[in-house]
Amino acid sequence: MATTDQSLNAPSVSVGMSRKPKDQGLARQQRIWGWIFLSPWIIGFILFTALPILVSLAFTFTDFTLTSTQEMRFVGLDNWVRLFTDPIAMTALGVTLRFALIAVPFGILIPLGMAAMLNSKNLWGKVLWRPLFYMPYVVPAISSIFVWQSFLNGDTGWLNRILRGVGIAEPPNWIQDANWILPAFMLVGVWGVGNAMLTMLATMQGVPTELYEAADVDGANPLVKFLRITLPMISPVILYNLVLSVIGLMQYFTVPYVMTRGTGNPGNSALFFNMYLYKTAFQNANMGYGATQAWFIFIIALVLTVALFGTSRRWVYYSSGD
Amino acid sequence: MAAITQSKAVNTSPWYSYQLRKLAIGGLFTMFAFAISLVYLMPFGQMLTTAFKNAGQIVGNTDGLILPMSPRTFTYEGEAYDIFNVPDENGVMRELALINKGRQSSEFVDPANPDAGLITWEGSWRTLDTAYEFEAHPENFPEAWRLIDFPRVFFNTAFIAIVGMVGTLLSSICVAYAFARFPIPGKNIFFIILIGTIILPGQVTLIPTYAFFASIGWTGSWLPLIVPHFFSNAYNVFLLRQFFMTLPRELDEAAMIDGAGPFRVLRSVIIPQAWPAILSVGLFHFIFAWNDYFGPLLYTLGRSDLWPISIAVQQFNFQYGPRPELIQATSLMAMLLPLGIFIFAQKVFMRGVVVTGVEK
To answer: Minimal CA–CA distance to A237: which of A108, A120, A118, A139?
Structure first.
């Protein structure tokens, strides 16, 4: 048994001339099998990721439509010029970036707060709380949108009834009010923090207890321990969630599309970039201009991601083991 | 004797108060968490109560009742009259049916004793409180079920979700096996590219993919929602690969010595050990497909017979906007299955989230 193990584990070490061709054959065979098993991903990557990205870029220089019978024409930079002079596109970009600016910090702080709460040694019945706070994440987006639409209704919604109950005579008319619709979407988004909370919580539970014990010896209070130990130790997960949240917000679509019935009203205050893209490419069938918008938002997402990773060296702590 | 009691008291006192303090802090903190969870889950409450109301219980109900309640009535001489809480001279409340409304005084009848005749009460009846009773309307659900053609919609969604799940399992298991076990040149670079696709914004591939599916006649069918899943998915591959890496290689090697080929090793050695990871990938996909909105919007919008539940519920609600009770009933029906699956499999499910989210 021991000898067979050895010969299998270290075929390259054995230098016997007679064995070499067989080992090479085995290694080659293993490589071929490897390519076979990898092939679904490679084919899928080429077909549904790599090629579409390049074709999408090519489309930005054409007037490609799906409906017209005309031949596709090369139009140079027309689409790009049009994009930067299109007031609606710039409005939509503004809405998206403004929303990201408020939604990203909340999308980190709320799950962070929840995770800290569920990680507290003072909490009873921990196993019950975790699924309870995660649960809204598995509710279909379409259901949570209609549930929140009713909850945020200016007259009959429970939120405004509570606000009136605590003495706010005229609470905001959330999704009908251009100034309040983005905060309203943020509230809806609170139901989407489950994954972020769970990953933060799991990382918090993995922080070595010696660190906290050492801090206890130094007489650190809970807040200091959280800021000086917990936060740095979970910073890689915070970075990961930050990146995912920025990318997700650049693609934000379903909530504003369904809540405003595709209009982005009142007054384009909820016209997100992706809704405009959908309108351009699929409702107006203007694929060339749609692809330009898609590449534009892709570049913005890329710049933001690179910027996040760039700042990460200042605040993300990687323990030496990784 | 006294000294012993004394010393015992001295010893237990700090222990006792420490326990009490811990108990108090734990209790307060848990109550705090409970309050937060109530706020967090409150919209579900409005959904549930609205889904059981009828139109009369909702309309004009700005500051009305939370639960589905209706005014109680009493039938007197063949007609229905509303019941009010009426105070008598001593301030004791009685439930009386209002027969003749008057500005200064009104006439009531006691439902418990209608034969006693009319009772005259001095004062404006408008100041009185209506007596309500609980009156739920579960018939909203069969109505919504019928209007939305739920069995067909359910079949459509389940078909898309299950076939896609089979596809992503078959392909992701193979790809993860390749990453975990085979000496492929450039494997690390491939793996980094694979992980990179997780943070690739979907729009950038959207239009050519759509144009491609349109050119081969697949728009207006389920194929674009199913076939791409047969080419694996970065999250799933990552989760399965992490799991496969923890499995001991000795078992693979023993099987290989017995003459098993790579497929045989995968089927008989790897897969039987990897059920937790496979289960969580399958559940992820099922819930993703069940909840997906954008894909079906793009590819099935024009074909109402192909709609999965997300599109059907949305279209239904655009159509039945003035019927909030039906909207909430359909929203509830759409979330029951994913919620049920989550509740039964929450350990496996959350374990998978942690692996994909934390270990990268």
So the answer is: A108
Summarize pLDDT for B238-268 with one digit per residue, the tens: 999 999 998 999 998 899 888 888 999 999 9
A281 shares a domain with A221: yes
Contacts of residue B299, Cβ cutoff 8 Å, sequence gap at least 6: B213, B218, B219, B220, B221, B222, B224, B225
Find tokens 């019927």 and name the residue.
B323
The tokens describing B216, both together, are 């081969």
Write the CA distances from B143 to A251, B31, B52, B322, integer angstroms.
36, 40, 12, 15
Dist CA A50 CA B155 (whole Å): 34
Closest partner residue to B199 among A55, A195, A305, by Cβ? Answer: A305
Q: Are residues A218 and A282 in the same domain?
A: yes
Check CB contact under 8 Å for B328 and A66: no
What pTM, to 2 d.p., does this model score? Answer: 0.85
Radius of gyration of chain B (CA): 32
The CA-based angle B321-B322-B327, given to 5 degrees, is: 55
Verify whether the Cβ–Cβ distance A134 to B346 is below 8 Å.
yes
Classify residue A176 by its DSSP letter: G
ipTM of the complex: 0.84
Range of the domain at A258: 78-315
B 282-321 residues inside an 8 A Cβ radius of A: 287, 290-291, 293-294, 298, 309-310, 313-314, 317-318
Same domain as A23, residue A158: no
A16 and A144, same domain (yes or no)? no
Q: Which residues lie closer than 8 Å to B261 by C-beta, 6 or more apart? A: none
All residues of chain A having their beta carbon less than 8 Å from the beta carbon of residue B194 are 41, 45
Give the angle B50-B53-B59 at the CA atoms, nearest 5°: 85
Considering the segment(s) B141-358 as one domain, its CATH architecture is: Orthogonal Bundle (1.10)
Distance CA A131, CA A230 (A): 22
Summarised one tens digit per residue, pLDDT across range A102-160 is 999 999 999 999 999 999 888 988 888 989 999 999 999 999 999 999 899 888 888 98
Q: At what angle do helices B150-181 and B140-147 cross, to 10 degrees?
A: 70
B340 and chain A in contact, CB less than 8 A: no
Residue of B nearest to A52 (CA): B205
